[in-house]
UniProtKB/TrEMBL annotation:
Gene3D superfamilies in alphabetical order: 3.40.630.30
Species this chain originates from: Citricoccus zhacaiensis
Stretches assigned to the N-acetyltransferase domain: 21-111
Listed name of the protein: N-acetyltransferase domain-containing protein
Length: 119
């Protein structure tokens, strides 16, 4: 039942009943499957000129759900939402950086200007 042997395109999201909730007080976007907490993507926002840039800091998935595609699903949902809302990102998180290499269609979301964040 494993799809690892398939070299054809793996869907970015392979789970059902996922939802994300933004928790600005804790600086994270949480991933839930029904009522089960799966993990989160830590973020901050910074205004650069007239744009709000979202700094994606770290992706944390509960150990019980690791290596099953949840991180990929979380990053996909977050990037799609930020794209729809017109935000640009600064990918500090190594997982997000790897994701962007794998899915270059999201590269236009990366903020290219000067940035005074945690370098």
């Amino acid at each position: 039942m494993s799809t690892q042997g398939s070299s054809t395109e793996t869907p970015k999201i392979v789970h059902d009943d996922l939802r994300v909730e933004r928790d600005p007080d804790r600086g994270r976007i949480e991933l839930w499957q029904k009522e089960q907490f799966i993990g989160f993507l830590g973020y901050t926002e910074q205004t650069v000129g007239e744009e709000t840039v979202v700094i994606l800091q770290h992706t944390i998935i509960d150990e019980a759900f690791g290596r099953r595609g949840y991180a990929r699903a979380l990053v996909t949902i977050v990037l799609e939402r930020l794209k729809a809302e017109g935000f640009l990102i600064v990918p500090e998180c190594s997982y997000v950086q790897d994701y962007l290499r794998r899915y270059p269609e999201y590269e236009p979301l990366v903020f290219k200007g000067g940035f005074e964040g945690n370098q």
